[in-house]
Design goal:
single chain; 4 domains; Beta-Lactamase; 46% helix; flat; five-stranded antiparallel sheet; alpha/beta
């Protein structure tokens, strides 16, 4: 009798919710025993699980980390919860199904919000940019006045308000004729022409203004007037000063567009451990000299950040900072990339030739990242540049002197590469004048709290959230992990948590599955012995996860590190449910 009643309830639920099969949203429902009764086509697509196989099975076997079971147990809904599948972010509402005051099931309806999340981020960035531009306009000594296409004031900064002898608040929304008797500004709205450097008499004072139309989607939406000099006599008597400023501005524009500077300083090196304090102190000392610097450390420790800090702490900080990833540039293009080429040097060469990275870095610093992966043929040419301080472009026999400081970085053991004949010994000693070693995160776990709070602050600004801390259990997991991917892995873990967190505290459930499973394995290990086969499988799966984390998700690199083929890696990933 109970079985027939249960089947009747199940049939009723299926009849009531069959319409969800036509929805684009993900819809999953379970009965009172947690068995799947609705698994619409959108669910099949998202979870990559066929409906005919899912229906009737316990939900925890289909979607291991779903919150439907908790809703079923408590009878309380989950509204606006987030979860991630692959690289896609979803928001889900889970509610109990109540019949005759009894919970007979639970249903979850999810919608993809990745694009909405990105749009929200873009909106926040647009607001920040708008506030930034408003600050610029309000802080300048030049006057700005903007009107819409009806001639009503939409922006008036304080210098212009002082010129017009009004307050910005009282002028906002008023028609331009009520504030300034300059009717030519209204005519500009219809002509759409730029008026530059015209003298205008306002409130008994002669000023020089620029008038320009404002466009929105190709249509005139208003006009803006800018007072560029409030003292005409000063303009007339300062031609040399104006010319000098123009030349200096042009020079700065060319330099800033061609040679971007280093972004990070010593303040961006987060950590108070003894090892990090020593590293910062060493950077301050060696940055003042001209010697070549070799930065060594595992992948993800922040070698590029240290290179930026060395440049910004050096006397060359006002010069260019040029970065070259020696592993990312194809071998046949690396020479032309570093040293440049003359017009006609080879087929497809750009007309007029190209300046190489060493010449671009003249007067500053060149950062040779992943130098351990540089081909032997190029190593000899780099050695000549370090010795002679000159380069030769491809197709040109004339040497060109360069004044650059070389900072190199690698995560490989150069001494071992020298023994294997894969790296020149003379280049190694030329590079290793000053060596900076960045300790891996597992050797400075005392820096974990300040790193976590640093990233929380950074991600709060990026996501628009107010996360304050991690739960005690989450802290324990982070503290027991050995961090093969170092600081980069830590940042990725916290960014993933920010996509799932709902309150002010990051919980264990917000951490990646491999960290949660590692914690579970540790608990099992502490509770007693396990079967040898299961232990070997756990070790194999953990090795796969660590290799993928260290390779930053690059499956080719992970397979190479494990000494297996990529096909075998995919097979093992499928076997253990990694990446699903």
């Amino acid at each position: 009798m109970a079985l027939s009643s249960h089947l009747k309830n199940t049939d009723l639920l299926r009849e009531e919710f069959y319409i969800f099969n036509s929805l684009y949203n993900v819809v999953v429902a379970v009965d009172a025993k947690g068995r799947v009764i609705i698994f619409n086509p959108a669910s099949e697509r998202v979870f990559n699980y066929p409906a005919e196989k899912a229906l009737g099975r316990p939900i925890k076997e289909v979607i291991p980390y779903t919150g439907l079971l908790k809703v079923l147990q408590t009878g309380k809904p989950h509204i606006g919860r987030k979860f991630v599948v692959g690289n896609t972010l979803f928001i889900v509402n889970r509610t109990p199904i109540v019949r005759e005051n009894r919970v007979v099931g639970a249903i979850g309806v999810a919608q993809e919000i990745t694009e909405l999340h990105q749009l929200g981020q873009e909106l926040r960035e647009a607001r920040e940019m708008n506030n930034f531009l408003q600050s610029i306009v309000q802080s300048t000594q030049e006057g700005y006045l903007a009107v819409n296409n009806e001639g009503r004031i939409i922006m008036l900064n304080r210098p212009m308000a002082e010129l017009l002898e009004i307050s910005p608040e009282s002028a906002s929304g008023r028609h331009i004729t009520e504030v300034i008797p300059d009717k030519r500004l209204q005519l500009l709205l219809w002509k759409g022409k730029l008026e530059y450097g015209e003298m205008v008499h306002i409130r008994g004072q002669d000023v020089v203004v620029i008038r320009a139309p404002l466009y929105n989607q190709g249509k005139i939406a208003g006009a803006i007037s800018k007072v560029i000099f409030q003292d005409v006599d000063q303009l007339l008597h300062s031609p040399e000063r104006l010319s000098s400023c123009q030349r200096e501005g042009a020079s700065l524009r060319v330099r800033s567009s061609t040679y971007p500077g280093a972004r990070y300083t010593l303040e961006d090196l987060v950590g108070e451990s003894h090892a990090m304090q020593q590293l910062k102190s060493l950077i301050r000392r060696v940055a003042q000299g001209p010697s070549t610097v070799l930065i060594q450390g595992e992948s993800g420790t922040g070698k590029e950040l240290v290179a930026h800090a060395v440049h910004n702490a050096s006397p060359r900080c006002r010069g260019p900072f040029v970065r070259v990833n020696c592993a990312a540039v194809p071998e046949n293009l690396l020479e032309s990339e570093l040293f440049g080429y003359q017009e006609g040097a080879f087929t497809g060469a750009r007309r007029g030739g190209q300046v190489g990275k060493f010449e671009q870095a003249h007067g500053g610093t060149i950062f040779l990242d992943e130098i351990g992966d540089m081909p032997l043929a190029m190593q000899a040419k780099i050695l000549r540049v370090l010795q002679e301080r000159e380069v030769e472009r491809l197709g040109d026999s004339r040497p060109r002197p360069v004044d650059v400081r070389v900072v190199a970085a690698t995560n490989r053991n150069l001494e071992e590469l020298v023994r294997q004949g894969q790296f020149r010994e003379d280049l190694y000693y030329r590079l290793n004048v000053v060596s900076l070693h960045i300790p891996p995160l597992r050797e400075r776990l005392e820096d974990l709290p300040c790193l976590v709070h640093h990233f929380i602050k950074k991600l709060n600004q990026r996501f628009g959230l107010a996360v304050r801390d991690l739960s005690r259990e989450a802290w324990e997991i982070l503290g027991s992990h050995d961090w093969p991917g170092n600081v980069r892995e830590l940042e990725n873990v916290l960014e993933r948590a920010f996509n799932l967190v709902e309150g002010h505290v990051i919980e264990v459930s917000h951490l990646p599955p491999y960290l949660q499973k590692a914690s579970g394995r540790q608990k099992k290990k502490n509770s007693g012995p396990c079967h040898l086969t299961n232990l070997l499988q756990e070790v194999e799966k953990e090795a796969l996860l660590e290799a993928l984390a260290k390779a930053g998700g690059n499956k080719m690199k992970a397979a190479r590190a494990l000494g297996i083929s990529r096909a075998w890696l995919y097979k093992k990933m499928k076997q253990y449910g990694i990446g699903e």
